[in-house]
Amino acid sequence: MDIWSVCEPAPDRVGPNEDLVVSGPDFVVVLDGATAPKGIESGCVHSVAWLVARLGTQLALPLLGRSEAPLADLLADAITAARGEHADTCDLANPDSPSSTVAMVRVGDEQVEHLVLADSPIVLRAPDRQVTVVADNRVDLLPEYTFEAVRRLRNQPGGFWVASTEPKAAYEAVAGTTERTAIELIALLTDGASRYSERYGHPWEDLVDTLATAGPQTLIDKVRRYDADAPAGTFRGKRHDDATAVLCRLLRRR
């Protein structure tokens, strides 16, 4: 599997990049930490970047060790391990505790496994160029987007799920498998990059073509220009965001 990735902080980022890419010979993990609004008490002495790094480390270890456990089990174990690292110092019952999205793929001899938790989609392209988008859009279906509503519905039935302090969130992810022969390219994206299609309306086929022909940096550069030019009031959320784009090209089996 050939992997081509760019993980770039937002132009107005103060502090460390809260996106992270972890990859190995047969897997890729993309994490996007959720930046807390100013003045919010998370109950945690650690940063969002700290949580993202811990989750990435805990996921990389079994994947590099060629664990055959389902991806959801690996994610649940990673959340449990990260939780254990700060259970004695932080209020893990606080719903505003640092959190992250998760996108994972693992390529086997016969199948490709995928898992998406929150808004970091995966795009699969078949040899015939047919595109399939694996997305978890539950945050887009919330009845309202006030801070209080999002707080109330985070990691709750009928709301949306993220990787934070609750291992059970792993089993709420969008997960599945696809025959390896049915996939040529895989794109993993944080919402700072996927907004090329989700916010600015370009077909997903165009997004994957841009990645395949010009590379992740070109895609992110295009998004940055759209972000800068977008009129106020025409989008929800931040104008700029950390952006990660990963392109995986599956090698033909001999």
Descriptive report:
A five-stranded antiparallel beta sheet has the order 1-10-9-6-7. The chain has 254 residues and is an alpha+beta fold. β4 and β5 form a beta hairpin. 38% of the residues are buried. It is globular, with a radius of gyration of 17 Å. It is built from six helices and ten strands.
Helix proportion range: 25-40%
How does the overall form come out from the CA principal axes?
globular
Assembly form of the protein: single chain
In this structure, how is the largest beta sheet organized?
5 strands, antiparallel
User: What does the average pLDDT come to?
Assistant: 95
How many distinct helices?
6
The proportion of strand residues reads 15-25%
Structural class, by secondary structure, is alpha+beta
Distance between the termini: 13 Å
H-E string:
EEEHHEEEEHEEHHHE
